Amino acid sequence: MAIPGKSFWIDKNVLVTGGTGFLGRHLLEKLKKKTPKKITLTNSKKDDLRLIESCRRVVRHQNLVIHLAAIVGGISFNKEHPATMFYDNALMGINLMEEARKAGVKKVVNILTVCSYPKFTPTPFKEKDLWDGYPEETNAPYGLAKKMILVQGQAYKEQYGFNSIYLIPANLYGPGDKFDPKLSHVIPALIRKVSDAKKKGLDKIVVWGTGRATREFLYVEDAAEGILLAAEKYNKIEPVNLGSGKEISIAQLSRLICKLMGFKGEIVFDSTKPAGQPRRRLDVSRAKKEFGFIAKTQLERGLKKTIKWYQSHPV
Prior knowledge:
two-stranded parallel sheet, Rossmann fold, six-stranded parallel β-sheet, alpha/beta, 43% helix
């Protein structure tokens, strides 16, 4: 019996940038099961995608490019490195697209960021709202760099007929995430804080912000599945949200992680620290309609798997 989607991949040479990263490793496992003709990964040590020469080399002889490579981090990292977040992410995307076009690549799958949405976007965020305001300030350089790649794709579609698609995932989490406090997003940061507090016998943890901000989270394996579905089935220039369609406050999330990890100490919210965008929840109806994507992993189940992975990989 044929495996659904396999016929699309059978003759494809697929390049995955960022294939050794958090999302990339999970996507690679699923991609291998599709048995494409060849899979190539970029290596950040030898493939500097900020350089057009590197982009020219890696796209050669590729049919499909899945562009995951990015410089990412939490609020603290974004605040400390705004120029890096803009310059590196914009250059990687722009150079890769131009060289893919010139090399005759048939399709590029680009991963944008929920940080591209305006700071005060009505919830749930609809793709049409993307241009209705300026992003939240701490995330703006990163979010705007990614939006410029969307503009590039729209221009390339109009002038060259080039096929590129754009996916906007909610905040990702899962096994293999970054738990370094300088780089991590909210879920791995909280797991690390609770773990450290338990090891040191502390009676409290400190969480940035008031706790009232909300976030939507997408389990990394679900995100990988959505990306591959879109690669197979979606060919329109309009961006598509990938998410669960559910939001949770940082206060609720903090309590849930403490409960799952057996930490009974106090949670102290530091309102002097930035909390980022006030609310995040995506309208996920377009992904379901266009390529049948529905997130399968409930947050508590995904958190248990993430915590279990972290506890078995001590830092």
